[in-house]
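> call design_seq(struct)
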């Protein structure tokens, strides 16, 4: 018997194409644009990890280091960290759609409500 249950973690974004593939899954995708050494990013890290665990069945939570994804930074006009962007795909348009965004310290309940409004539901623990 394992003493510790393995917890789902946020997906680490590799490229803009990787982001497109995640959105193609049909699930809402919450992206946390962060950078190392950013105090507010470190504060939000625990909340983002909790969201990845709570919504692991119905949404995809992504951590995007701003150094690794310059195309995504330009596309979503990220100017500060942390910046959160909630994406879905419109089937009729066949492209990424930004449903919501916020920058800086964001309360967990605000992030939770945005995921729920995009169709995600928290998993039962």
């Amino acid at each position: 018997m394992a003493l510790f249950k393995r917890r789902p973690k946020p997906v680490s974004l590799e490229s803009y194409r990787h982001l497109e593939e995640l959105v193609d899954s049909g699930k809402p995708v919450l992206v946390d644009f962060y950078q190392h050494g950013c105090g507010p990013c470190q504060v939000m890290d625990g909340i983002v990890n909790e969201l990845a665990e709570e919504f692991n069945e119905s949404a995809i939570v992504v951590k995007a280091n701003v150094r690794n994804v310059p195309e995504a930074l330009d596309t979503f006009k990220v100017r500060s960290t942390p910046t959160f962007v909630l994406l879905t795909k419109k089937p009729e348009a066949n492209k990424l759609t930004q449903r919501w965004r916020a920058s800086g310290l964001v309360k967990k309940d605000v992030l939770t409500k945005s995921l729920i409004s995009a169709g995600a539901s928290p998993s039962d623990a």
